Amino acid sequence: MNIKKGYKKIPYAVLKTYKGSEFDGIRYEQLLPYAQPTDGDAFRVVLGDFVTTTDGTGIVHIAPSFGADDFKVAKQNGIGSLTLVDRQGKLRMM
């Protein structure tokens, strides 16, 4: 494929479409596996009503320790939190 440098319209093909609900509960591999949450499950897809396709892809990362909506959907789905930054903003390893 010959694509010019800086050209923003990269060709693609849609192979299949899915409803968001079809991803509910799917597990995925943790990117940085050196720490695990101790207060619940993690690393699986959950649904939340605060995510929309009008603001992006409709797929977002949640951080239960850092936002009210994220905390709420995590609690509803038994997702644990993983906080690797202390109150001084320093990275701490668990």
CATH architecture: Alpha-Beta Complex
Share of residues in helices: under 10%
CATH H-level homologous superfamily name: Valyl/Leucyl/Isoleucyl-tRNA synthetase, editing domain
Q: What is the top-level CATH class?
A: Alpha Beta
Using only C-alpha atoms, the radius of gyration works out to 17 Å
Number of folding domains?
1
Number of E-state strands: 0
What do you see in this structure?
It is a single chain. It is built from one helix and no strands. The protein is low in regular secondary structure. The longest helix has 9 residues, at 68-76. It is extended.
Q: What's the helix and strand layout?
A:
Layout (H helix, E strand, L loop, with lengths): L67 H9 L18
Features of the shown structure:
single chain, about 90 residues, little secondary structure, Isoleucyl-tRNA Synthetase, domain 2, 1 helix, about 10% helix
Short overview:
The chain has 94 residues and is low in regular secondary structure.
